[in-house]
Amino acid sequence: MIQRFDTGPRMSEMTVHNGVAYLAGQVAEDAGADIVGQTEQVLAAIDALLAQAGTDKRNILRAEIFLADMADFAGMNEAWGRWVPQGATPARATVQAKLASPGWKVEIVITAAIA
């Protein structure tokens, strides 16, 4: 069985199958915020989606981070470092990419176990 959360005409914010939650790319609501603020918004959205699936950030298997500008890497890592649980850090990739909206500085995709 596949569960879909916050399903719209083009995508779902999250799907769950066989004990794994797959989150769509999460972006900031306030595109006017700096990289730290946008990253904090994205991480809060991830927390909320994981809670809907009955899991949390300690069970993240993989994080894919897309930055509009690699100059924002340190600021993103500042917010990430405060949020990610030490001893339960996931596999992670960070790349520069042109994001769908010019105001977005960061987009994060998460895959997490439901434990």
Question: Mind explaining what this structure looks like?
Answer:
The protein is α+β, with helices and mostly antiparallel strands. It has one domain (25-113): 60s Ribosomal Protein L30, Chain: A. The protein is 25% helix and 33% strand. It is built from two helices and six strands. The protein has a six-stranded mixed beta sheet with strand order 1-2-3-6-4-5, with helices on one face. Helix 2 (73-83) links the parallel strand 4 and strand 5 (91-96). The longest helix is centred in the middle third of the chain and has 18 residues, at 35-52. Pfam families: Ribonuc_L-PSP (PF01042). This is Endoribonuclease L-PSP. InterPro entries: RidA_CS (IPR019897), RutC-like_sf (IPR035959), YjgF/YER057c/UK114 (IPR006175), YoaB-like (IPR035709). Belongs to the RutC family.
Question: Which regions have little confidence, pLDDT < 50, spanning 5+ residues?
Answer: none
CATH topology: 60s Ribosomal Protein L30, Chain: A
Under CATH, the homologous superfamily reads RutC-like
Percent of residues in helical segments?
25-40%
How confident is the prediction overall: mean pLDDT?
98
The computed structural class is alpha+beta
CATH class descriptor name:
Alpha Beta
- The proportion of strand residues reads 25-35%
* Widest β-sheet, arrangement of strands: 1-2-3-6-4-5
- Helix and strand sequence: EEEHEHEE
Q: Regarding quaternary structure, how should these chains be classified?
A: single chain
CATH architecture: 2-Layer Sandwich
Gyration radius over CA: 14 Å
N-to-C CA distance: 17 Å
In DSSP terms, counting alpha (H) and pi (I) runs of 4 or more, how many helices? 2
